[in-house]
Amino acid sequence: METTAFPSPATYALEITITSAEGLRVGRKRRPVKKNAFVTVQTDLYTYQSTKVDTEGGSNPAWNERLVICMPMHAKFITLEVQCKARFPTKSNEVIGAARVPVSDFIGGYAPSDYLHFLSYGLRNKHGERSGIINFSVTVKGLDDRRRVPSPWPVTPAVGEKGINAAVVTGVPAAWFDNDGRTAYFATNQTASRI
After folding, report:
1. 131 with 124: CB under 8 angstroms?
2. What is the pLDDT of residues 68-95, one digit of tens each?
3. 3-class secondary structure, 104
4. What structural domains and CATH numbers belong to the chain?
5. Is-above-0.90 flag for pTM?
6. Long-range CB contacts (< 8 A, 24+ apart) of 114-119?
7. Would you give the DSSP letter of residue 4?
8. Where do the C2 domain residues begin and end (predicted)?
9. What's the rounded Cα separation, in Å, for the pair 171 and 165?
């Protein structure tokens, strides 16, 4: 199942390929997963996508599924959660484990924005115990096309009165757009007003 996302000015697109998982264990007894594992990728509270269910892989499922998902500019982490599909519709899915991936692992540094990052993370269950490994790749799309906050100029002391120094000051943006890209907010003192 291939899905797409259309980023707004306050977001960029992540192309995440969920490759596979290894050694999946579920519950306090750490029993091996038999079938029906899938992965949910979440970038914020309301933005998430899921892979198809792997019915045959057992505790070593393989998906090789590409997801394109919007990532807010302010986000610091993405969450990958491996779940086991419930047998009955009235029951909820069982969470096998989750990995919280820092955005700094695939954005920034010296790699170009379209660089393909191959990553593997350990999964932890709700009790903090190891429950397997998730393998995936990430490519950041459209980050260079976005407006970035310019880096501040190098700070050099200014000539002032005796005992007083001056320097460059970096401030907070006075206006920003909501996720829909059409609603502008303007800051006044401690509040923001919507236009």
Report:
1. yes
2. 999 988 889 999 999 998 777 767 888 9
3. helix
4. 11-141 (2.60.40.150)
5. no
6. 114/139, 114/140, 114/141, 115/139, 115/140
7. -
8. 1-117
9. 18
